[in-house]
Amino acid sequence: MNETPDPKSFRVAALYRFCRLDRFEEMRAPLAAFCCARGIKGTLLLAREGINGTVAGTTEAIAELVGHLNAQPELTGFDVKYSHAAEMPFHRMKVRLKREIVTMGVEGIDPLESVGTYVEPAEWNTLISDPETVVIDTRNGYEVALGTFRRALDPQTDSFREFPQWVDEHRGELENRKIAMFCTGGIRCEKATAFVKSLGFDEVLHLKGGILKYLEEVPAEQSLWEGECFVFDERVSVAHGLVEGEAELCRACRHPLTPAERASPKYSPGISCEYCHDSRSEEDRARYAERQRQVELAARRGRDHIGS
Asked: Which residues of the chain have pLDDT under 70?
């Protein structure tokens, strides 16, 4: 379970729901105004297929938003997972209209029509410990680099759009096997399992609530998770109990870095890391250095740097 949060900390809500949301365009402005009026920041995506996003605010503000969303007939009962951040993990509030709330780019894939079998966090260890189970991490490579489940395959994708091609290329390895997939909060697996089932695979399963729910509910001493879980906000990563992790972002290339990677001689805060140092020019690094100087100056003045 989560540690008792500091009452001055911010509550973070990761939420999504696949549904028929035909009025998604007209919901954008009122939803943005609702959040901004309560000091909520983050990103919410609206599409004809539903809602997805992560936001943060005071406990009271997030409770009001959850109540507001649950009052929308199409969104009632949406999936939401909570954690906390010592500081506001977002810079602004954005409500965006999208073609898909999680972009796979394959026409006709509808999680409302067909989806994999949900596996509760308490049952996940048994499933992925079975040698007959193929365990697939559906996240992108930079996320997997921070942590993943034991025995999990890494498709080494840079975008979720690449996942269908990876499945096609490895189809032979998946035939007649149980396929267990997982992602951060559960939404990518809704699409991933729907896609894999559309190819004719029968035993397709996924972790209910994603990694975040697993890290919240499964004790560390029983865990098959190794490392930290990347999150798309300024916390960068979370660990068991959903406490903030030790990872930081390279502000030059946005790759998450472990403490060991930050010890590399190629790492310079805001300027470079081992993943981007050799692909950047001296002019690039000079530009990054000036930006970092401005960020540090704004921090000393107690302000947010607009370009951060």
From this structure: 1-8, 303-308
